[in-house]
Specification:
6-stranded parallel β-sheet, 12 helices
Length: about 400
């Protein structure tokens, strides 16, 4: 057994309680030990910090952080003997090519060790969650236990993929999951049974409500998947400038006034004006796909109003805790002209797809991590609360 001393930000199991600590990591013969290179902050981590979490608090103290890239520094002597797959690899014999982990390899991780049925992830009762029951990436070192290895949750990062891109593979796969789950109808069979195609409507209009890292990732994926026009709704001039700097002329940017979550007459009137403007912008059509990368009721209410009335549109809501959407006309959903889907995490297959696209050059994720980097010597409370420059803040183990 080896012991690694590791500085870490440790969540104590109650709101706003994170301590800087030094842990002793004991690794066994069936474990990997990874030196964390970069760990981006997920919105879930920020929510846990602010409010606590019923699925995390009972396991505290625990190290949060699952959007990470690390370098293998130790391979347990029995790792290559692990043959029986679980979860994503249930019923499979793990191959030598997968189990042949080497020191110096860079890896990222599927954070939900889920069970699957017919290739689909089952959300309830997972085997475990990285950064919930297993210490995550806000640390110098991380132990990768047998369950993560046997579930196929350790994914190798291609050599030329930058650390900042590798740290974004998991959230990018979450956005891709929502795209791949969107059911656009393509017709009916002889009995009138609806037939669907999953994915962005080819050549269609896409609207993204939001301007942060995940919003821009969704826009990039929509373009990659064949969208004809992508519009991002932003709330300020600084956000417009940020999107313009990162995405350039690949997208259209619409600056909307900031509206309240409560559906007051003034708020609804402002939303009427937004819808009218976007109706003009799209030649009266509105949008085939709408993504709300925001948990606010205002964003979700607006999402429901931007569906193309005759376009069988789909809304993807992946902004965190979904709150009550009041005063929204949901007739389009009720009569099946539109649908709303969501995502809670991503499948391992989605992460594998993103890694392949990064390796081939089909996709790049550079410039989507905040330039404001944090280290373990910084105040953990500042790290968990910072808005940085509007992009994802990241924790680096060594300041660059």
């Amino acid at each position: 057994m080896s012991i690694f001393r590791s500085k870490a930000f440790v969540y104590q199991g109650r709101p706003q309680a994170v301590a800087r600590d030094t842990l002793s990591i004991e690794s066994g013969p069936r474990d990997l030990v990874v030196e964390v290179l970069m760990c981006a902050r997920c919105g879930t981590d920020k929510t846990i910090y602010r409010y606590g979490h019923p699925n995390v608090d009972p396991y505290a103290p625990v190290v949060l952080g699952h959007e990470l890239v690390g370098r293998i520094v130790q391979v347990g002597k029995e790792v290559r003997t692990l043959r029986a797959g679980i979860g994503y690899r249930e019923g499979q014999v793990l191959l030598d090519a997968y189990l042949d982990f080497r020191e110096g390899e860079r890896v990222c991780f599927q954070s939900r060790l889920a069970r699957y049925r017919h290739g689909l992830m089952l959300i309830p009762k997972p085997i475990a969650n990285l950064s919930f029951q297993i210490n995550g990436g806000y640390a110098e070192y991380m132990k990768v236990p047998e369950t993560m290895i046997r579930s196929g949750s350790v994914l190798r990062v291609p050599d030329h993929v930058a650390d900042e891109e590798a740290a974004l593979v998991e959230p990018t796969a979450c956005a891709l999951e929502s795209i791949f789950a969107t059911p656009h109808p393509i017709g009916v069979d002889a009995e009138g049974r609806h037939l669907y195609r999953a994915g962005i409507q080819p050549g269609g209009n896409v609207c993204v409500i939001g301007s942060g890292t995940v919003s821009m990732i969704y826009a990039l994926l929509a373009l990659l998947e064949g969208a004809g026009k992508v519009v991002l709704i932003v709330r300020s001039e600084s956000k417009r400038e940020l999107v313009q700097r990162v995405l350039g002329d690949q997208v259209s940017i619409y600056r909307a006034p900031l509206t309240a979550d409560e559906a007051t007459p003034e708020t609804l009137a402002a939303e009427d004006a937004i819808v009218a403007d976007l109706t003009k912008l799209t030649g009266g059509y509105l949008f085939d796909d709408v993504a709300a990368a925001n948990a606010s009721p205002a964003a979700q209410r607006l999402m429901l109003r931007l569906y193309a009335p005759e376009g069988y549109a789909v809304g993807a809501c992946f902004g965190g805790t979904h709150r009550l959407v009041d005063a929204a006309n949901i007739d389009l959903n009720h009569y099946r002209a539109a649908k709303t889907v969501g995502t809670s995490g991503c499948s391992t297959a989605g992460m594998e797809t993103i890694l392949k696209w990064l390796e081939s050059g089909r996709l790049h994720l550079r410039g989507l991590v905040s330039s404001r980097h944090f280290t373990l010597d910084d105040d953990p409370h500042e790290f968990f609360t910072t808005e940085a420059d509007g992009l994802k803040p990241a924790l680096l183990m060594k300041e660059i």
